[in-house]
Amino acid sequence: MSEEQWCLSRETLRDQCLKLQEFRTKVASWYCSHGRDFPWRHADTSYQRVIGELLLQRTRARVVAGFYLDFLAEYPSWESLSRANEKDLQGLLRNVGLWRRRARSLIDLASAVMDTGGQLPDTRAELEKLPGIGQYMASAVLVLCYGEREPLLDVNMARVLERVFGPRQRADIRYDPYLQDLARSVVQVDNAVEANWAVLDLAAGICTIAHPKCHECPLVCLCSFASQAT
Ligand code: SF4
User: Fold this and answer.
1) How far is the CA of 33 from the centre of ligand 1 (A)?
2) Is residue 53 located within the same domain as residue 134?
3) Last-in-domain residue among 146, 177, 194
């Protein structure tokens, strides 16, 4: 690499670092006054937090909010969930997509957790051995239960990051090193849980798929998508 190219890449890196810092600050500030409030965000136990995240898979948050507390009242622990009657659990999940399959996989997961002493493991490798736990849910457990600075990188977070910082390199976000690194960088802050929620709330309320409200967005001055649209 020539000296000129090296200086250019160093400059680009510095600009990206500054942009990242500004992104974190602006989203955190926006979240203080616009963040959503859901019962699983006040959960006391790891079980309650993980159940909230499992129920949110492929399901709108307001739908989950409608039955989350009923779910916990009926199944307050991994132990009770592992012994659930499958038909009864299906009835509780009837408003959720793929409810039959999800009832089965919740029982399978709870049984696996009980087989390993009633605690979720604290490493990605061990978590991903559990039934129904993929890359996203392993990250969710690590950040929500063990305080690790892991991103909740789903299609919604990916949309915000790509619009602000530029497009992914691979079709599947699970295998895209650029998006994975970027998302992990975004949550390298003291409160990684809130940093995740902030981006997800912005994606849900402002940076929507079809009609992003760029005029209301705290990121408008940083955003590649918004600058191209004007
Ligand atoms: S400025 Fe518009 S496109 Fe960019 S992050 Fe905000 S809402 Fe999304």
Assistant:
1) 18
2) yes
3) 146
